[in-house]
Amino acid sequence: MTIGLLRGxxxxxxxxxxxxxxxxRAIAALVILGLLVPPxxxxxxxxxTEAIFALLCISFMRVDVAQVRANLRQPGxxxxxxxxxxxxxxxxxGLGCLAVGLDVRxxxxxxxxxxxxxxxxxxxxPALAALMGLDATLVLITLVTSTALIPFTAPLFAYLFVVxxxxxxxxxxxxxxxxxxxxxxxxxxxxxxxxxxxxxxxHKEPIDGINIxxxxxxxxxxxxxxxxxxxARPLLMIALTLFAFAVFLVLLVATMLxxxxxxxxxxxxxxxxxxxxxxxxxxxxxxxxxPGATWLYFALSQFPIYLAxxxxxxxxxxxxxxxxxxxxxxxxxxPANR
Length: 338
Known about the structure:
This protein is an all-alpha fold. The protein has a single domain (about 35-320), classed as Up-down Bundle (Na+/H+ antiporter like fold). Helix content is about 80%, strand content about 0%. The chain is built from 20 helices and 2 strands. The chain has helices at about 1-20, 25-35, 40-45, 50-60, 65-70, 75-100, 100-105, 105-120, 125-130, 135-160, 170-195, 195-200, 205-225, 225-230, 235-260, 265-275, 280-285, 290-300, 300-310, 315-320, and strands spanning about 325, 330. Strands 1-2 form a two-stranded antiparallel sheet. A hairpin with a 5-residue loop joins strand 1 and strand 2 (about 330). Helix 14 (about 225-230) crosses helix 15 (about 235-260) and helix 15 runs antiparallel to helix 16. The protein is globular. This is Na+-dependent transporter. Keywords: Membrane, Transmembrane, Transmembrane helix.
């Protein structure tokens, strides 16, 4: 009987490991499934906050603390990248939108863009950078520092630009973000203490599988109305999709140009991170109480995010052959050649 129970428990673990090995293919499949089965989105939408919290717990659980400390010894690039993604990007986005009158012409889209701009980078950014052979360590450190600032910077920019469009005050937004990030960090620390970092590394593939399953909750929730909206308003949906790709590319290219002196490979890694904003975190912080058009833009913005690794592979192959430099100006080899 005991052997039977063990075998029964091993099957789900093997299934999760198989799912985890599918990587970006599984993520792409999630998007397709979310589009094809919209009723699941309606069912799962109330659980977006819990799903984002779980995803954050897994991401924090896998952070290599020693690696973070080692890279903070040369903080110049990290500080510059943190300031760019947490301060400059939302400030420029807000001022640019006001300059063209987007807050008056399309308040819901303006709210979507500002929530996208004030969000921290996606927790999956280091993994995607590593998948492309880019400097995942630099991305990881900047991700940690910028995420730590979000409970303070997001309320500030919300107050400056979109306070009237939110259903909660900037202070409440900051407190909610602090609770989500602080709580997930605490849970992750407890898990690391109880299970051990070695065990977490050994079970990478099943954990990846769990990550993909939880990610489906978010994907299904935001993708639920996309197909019906395409049928009802095809021209508008095509325009919004192209706009989402344009925003992604502007952030990517601007970041690469800004950090070109540290080497094309590392600049591309930072560009990938900055262009992939954690909009799920903002959905969780606002309890998903957002206008329909804001939800729709968030859904369409997932396409460039999930297609980025495939789209940018030719560029990554070209730039990895060029020399990169660390914060002290010393040449370093690319991750692919180490």
